[in-house]
Structures
1.
Amino acid sequence: MKNYSVFDILGPAMIGPSSSHTAGAARLGKTAREIAGGSFYKVTFYLHGSFAKTYKGHGTDKALVAGVLGMGPSDERIKDSLNIAKEKGIDAQFIESDLGYEHPNTVKIVFHYKDKDDYYIIGSSIGGGSILITNINGSKVNFSGDYPTILIKYKDQKGSISRISSILSYEDINIANMKVTREGKIATMVMEIDGPIKSGIVDIISSLDEVIYVTGINSIGR
């Protein structure tokens, strides 16, 4: 019979002693990776509030690293994630930080690349394995990762929302929620959709002249 440690399965689809500090942390890391992309050589985690105080004892460090390596909350490799990252040549650094008026379980995840600028995501683990992404590389957003999500940064022009929405409508994709924020002449759109993101949709949207950046994230399991 297997001997289970504190980082083994204690509940359905979860590795670790806390849904907020391990399951939620793993989802945060994995969602951040989906947004930022791979090929990073280093990740810096700025830990805020409760995350900063208890991250080692609750396994938050292992869960966050597991997430950025592409592991989900139920992956049994979470307990070995720090060693796995080293084997892959990925440096993981943890810094206790004050991120301001944020949820107590908040982290700023900064991805470092050799061939492009750093990229960061800020997100919170809000309980029960649920998460909230609030900032992507300086753009304020608000989405949970519970639904397939399309993120678009584009030059704010008349008709942009209509053109993007028409692409999804043509592909018979329903928009469940949509939020648009603007900073000067640049807008950020977050669309949560019903059903998985179909192959090719991201490429079609990226072909629009005004689109600067687009990525699709299929829901990250709890």
Note: The helical segments are 19-36, 50-54, 60-68, 81-87, 160-170, 201-206.
2.
Amino acid sequence: MLNVLVADDNTDFIKNLINFVLGKNSNIKITNVASNGLEVLQAIQNNPNKIDLILLDLKMPKLNGLETLDKIYHMNLSHYPSAFVISGEGDLITKIVNHPLVIDYINKSEGMDGIYFKLEDYDKNLQFLNIKEDLSQKICSELSSIGYNLSHIGTQYIKECILEIYQKGNLEYTQNLENYLYKKIAFMHDKSIKNVKSNIIKATNFMYAESDISFLKNYFHFSDEKKKPTPKIVISTILSKL
């Protein structure tokens, strides 16, 4: 459950936003509503561990969004909420893009759909982070069982490819390894696509040389014992087992 505080002095906007969000996603719960920054601070003090995200307007009375962000950042909290800035003031938005609490921002002119899609993406990413460690262990277990050397950088790259597809929920990425997956892994590690591809192939060749051929035939459901699993086949097969 993603617990959200909505902070905006426009009551009609708040009502529309709450109705729109709650009507689309039952995993997002609006726990608090504030009309100014002082009420935001009070809500956090009253529930320091129960607010995950603040949908924050920047132009509010008594204490504006910019001042509110700074005061939250300097509070002594064990759990700091993230802030998703929603404002109609484009010049103010530019002032908060690098704030440590701000995870995203949007102009109100983009409408409820734009706000909701960004909010939904954040919720999905949060859910993925909660299971990522267990998922990584399962992937490593599968890779190890078929003979991959877990200390090889190419094996690490394969694991990251599988995690990326799982998170995005798009199996079509396996059909386009170089243009999407290898490119993204290369960017993450500051390597070339050629380097990522080469290391994945090396790790896969090592796996094939060290593994029992009959075991690989059964694992990948090959009809021919001599068939060699490609990275694409490895990734697709392990994804089907998660």
Note: The longest strand covers residues 28-34.
3.
Amino acid sequence: MPELPEVECIRSYLEHTCVGAKIALSQLVREDIVGSVGSPRGKRSAKKSTTPKVALLDSSTLVGVERKGKQLGLIADNGRALLIRLGMSGQLLVVESVDKNLSHVHAVWSLRFNNTLKFLLFRDPRRFGSILPCRNRAGIDDHWNKLGPDALTISQPILWQIMKNRVTGVKALLLDQARICGLGNIYVDESLFLSGIHPKKQACFLNDVELQLLAYSIRRVLSKAIHAGGSTLRDYRTPDGAEGNFQKAHSVYGRIGLLCTMCKATIVGDIVGGRTTAFCPNCQAL
């Protein structure tokens, strides 16, 4: 968390409100959140600031905001870029003034539009996120080429390539960002429920109809979640501080012990791929 829908909502907000702003790095509170290709989680042993301000888009203009999977790319007019990994609890907030009492703010940029001044904050209470400076667009591609296809555009033929000859459970494969990127625990559980597939079913046994239905279910669940502003369970907020609403529409995630909305069987839980998993034993029979 946040997963693809939440990151897409953040991307869309930043694209519509921040592109064209002149950027200045106001403060880098924690140098250890700045990562690289070799250290994407950041330099956790860093004790003092060594990152040049220009690498963090200082004195540039924001010209684009891109996304792949759960990652964001901020593109500047000088060719430089910042790749943002939000991790478990990362937030990008756009505010009119910086509240000094707001905890866990690790980096602050000023955004100037003509005579208007706002601030972009990178906040991450659990510190699993990071900021990765890239000299150019190729730097972002170095990271994103390691990821699988974006889940929002997944199709049956691509799923077949991912699943064929794999005896691994389907949920474990869907969580593997190197095979398909953007899905986490919430939207895998919801997509598998919509497609009627048990999370432990071996991927190689999915037939063409199931693969077609699963691809459709993934796209539909993600699209509905984006339309609802994402799911706010704990930390996720859009850049203006608003919560998402899709958690109110979850069919199985977070509903273990409750009745299935389709058949009234009891939603059960299990551990799949090291993650707590919710599913309906009737609608998703193995």
Note: The mean pLDDT is 94.
